[in-house]
């Protein structure tokens, strides 16, 4: 299978507009290679009452990762 390579993005931490077009083009070229699977419709599951939700914990590494991310739109 041929590989489509694009130039490396600058390490600015943000996707620059001119690179966004390149990423969109890369995605369009890869789309035919992605397999499409159709799953059967999911069984309807009733929501759980909030009073029944207990003991939820988040690993420290996950919490640190999320805390280090910027909010959308920064």
TrEMBL record:
It comes from the Bacteria. The lineage of its organism: Bacteria, Bacillati, Actinomycetota, Actinomycetes, Kitasatosporales. This is Uncharacterized protein.
């Amino acid at each position: 299978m041929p590989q489509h390579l694009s130039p490396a993005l600058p390490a600015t931490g943000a996707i620059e507009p001119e690179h966004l077009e390149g990423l969109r083009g890369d995605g369009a070229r890869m789309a035919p290679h992605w397999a499409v699977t159709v799953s059967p419709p999911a069984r309807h599951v009733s929501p759980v009452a909030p009073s029944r939700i207990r003991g939820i914990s988040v690993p420290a590494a996950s919490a640190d990762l999320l805390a280090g991310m910027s909010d959308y739109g920064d």
